[in-house]
Amino acid sequence: MLKLGLSLPPLIAYTKTLEVQSPISRFSFSKSRARNRASRSGFRTLKAVLSEERVVKGDEELKGKGKGKEYDAIVIGSGIGGLVAGTQLAVKGARVLVLEKYVIPGGSSGYYERDGFTFDVGSSVMFGFSDKGNLNLITQALEAVACPMEVVPDPTTVHFHLPGNLSVRVHREYSDFITELINKFPHEKEGINKFYSECWKIFNALNSLELKSLEEPIYLFGQFLKKPLECLTLAYYLPQNAGNIARKFIKDTQLLSFIDAECFIVSTVNALQTPMINASMVLCDRHYGGINYPIGGVGGIAKSLARGLEDKGSKILYKANVKSIILEHGKAVGVKLADGREFFSKTVISNATRWDTFGKLLKIDELPEEEKIFQKVYVKAPSFLSIHMGVKASLLPPDTDCHHFILEDDWNKLEVPCGSIFLSIPTVLDPSLAPEGNHILHIFTVSPMEDWKGLSQKDYEEKKELVADEIIRRLENKLFPGLKGSIVFKEVGTPRTHRRYLARNDGTYGPMPRNIPKGLLGMPFNTTAIDGLYCVGDSCFPGQGVIAVAFSGVMCAHRVAADLGFEKKSPVLDAGLHRLLAWFRTMA
């Protein structure tokens, strides 16, 4: 559900929301409002907050333009991966055009406003926002374009409510978390310490490296010469999964089930199917850098990156629905929009899923071999049912945690539709997201597209309410008595919602392995078999989640910059490394 940065699947505002919102009037934050938030909530300041200004411009300048105007790179989609790739390139001096189907940036990390509430589309659990190390990729991306944000630290990453009345808080301080877990499983003290120590070994190796493209050999060789032990550590764990390593040290079945739940909110699969590198990034960074929530909501990240992109001389165009990638002699040279406009560039970066990129945007006769391998190893993960609610503040006890994971009575229901529930209450950290006297509850549960097909509009609406009411009943029984009577606003989204507004194939949040994977060996990088075409986002290495897609964006920008001449490159070494990486993927 959370996936490497806990980037939960999205709920975009519904049609009636889209009709009344203006990207200029509805989505700006004043300096005084930000200061009020900080003073009321005790925010930790990293840098200056969003300044008073509108959402980035773009439409008027680019209306009617297209053919004859060439960019260095066109980015399809303004999710975090696409925006990080675009801004990193713009900082290096490239001319970038980002094309966004929606009216504001962010994709799964966007937001919408209704009845005085500011709702995060996806996750409220933000990794990569600390002020230290090399994995604070969101902080680095924002600072690169001089648009840093203020954050508030979250003292508890997540509070687990599990079968057998097992309750575990993942405290910000690592020692507090480990102490609590050992107190629950004192007979597994040694195993607990050994498993999480393995995670730290991987995290520390990754955090010691300068993060750039793993497809760029000059960078790779340079890092290996500087940090050979760290590079070898990561290479050793690359094909391994968290569940196998946990079972080396731990025997208690309930504790192993807890680690399954830990991994499920990283990857929405159990520990045996979760790459150890992915698990380690999240299970350690939550203590090293901590979870930090941006003032004003998660949507401010994309808005700041989009503004920074334009400040660097590049462009973003909204309501730009890309229908196809233009190929000339087998090379990607531009894109065509639904309204017929065409834009041309030296490179094209797709922030769409690989299924959408190669199944819809590219008009080719046969799928490239590396994409066949990808689709052999990975399938589209199921989507989610999402509920955004406003509730009376009196419902919540004063010590309520921001994030909760609920699986009441049966470990076997962990991965099944509507089996487990993830709940975020971002107003615990930023009260100004809701009208005074109210809180926001943001609820997710697994729900595949197949469950929502073939329904009439009447049946569809009735089913949404029935499923939502059952989820609310469960939360009322487990956490918040009187919840239903405290609701002042409710909006329900389904996989059909996610597909419609995010243009994601079947509403999927990304890939998940068909079987037990060999770690990350099968996950493709940014380059593709199509010359000039690159992919970025959650269906590229290292996978799903805010920190992961930001990493993907950094890697993609570096590789594209090298190919465009903004960074050093070696064609001979490039060819050799490409063949080596392709061979590795065949082993998956």
- Looking at the structure, the CATH topology of the domain at 63-113 and 123-151 and 295-379 and 514-587 is FAD/NAD(P)-binding domain
CATH top level assignment of the domain at 63-113 and 123-151 and 295-379 and 514-587 = Alpha Beta
Measured as a percent range, the helix fraction is 25-40%
Strand content: 15-25%
Count of individual beta strands: 20
Low-confidence stretches: 1-61
Pathway: Carotenoid biosynthesis; lycopene biosynthesis
GO cellular component, one term: chloroplast membrane
Catalytic activity: 7,7',9,9'-tetra-cis-lycopene = all-trans-lycopene
Domain Amine oxidase: 80-560
Describe this structure in words.
With 588 residues, the protein is an alpha/beta fold. It has a domain at 63-113 and 123-151 and 295-379 and 514-587: FAD/NAD(P)-binding domain (3-Layer(bba) Sandwich), CATH 3.50.50. 38% of the residues lie in helices and 18% in strands. The protein has 20 helices and 20 strands. The chain has helices spanning 15-20, 31-41, 59-62, 80-91, 137-144, 174-184, 189-207, 217-226, 228-237, 242-249, 253-267, 276-288, 299-311, 354-361, 369-377, 457-478, 483-486, 495-502, 546-564, 571-586; strands at residues 70-76, 96-99, 111-114, 117-120, 151-154, 156-162, 166-171, 291-294, 315-317, 322-328, 331-337, 342-350, 378-380, 384-392, 403-406, 421-424, 438-446, 487-493, 511-513, 533-535. The strands form five sheets. Strands 1, 2, 9, 10, 11, 12 and 20 form a seven-stranded mixed sheet that branches. Strand 11 and strand 12 (342-350) form a beta hairpin. Helix 10 packs antiparallel against helix 11. Residues 1-61 have low confidence and may be disordered.
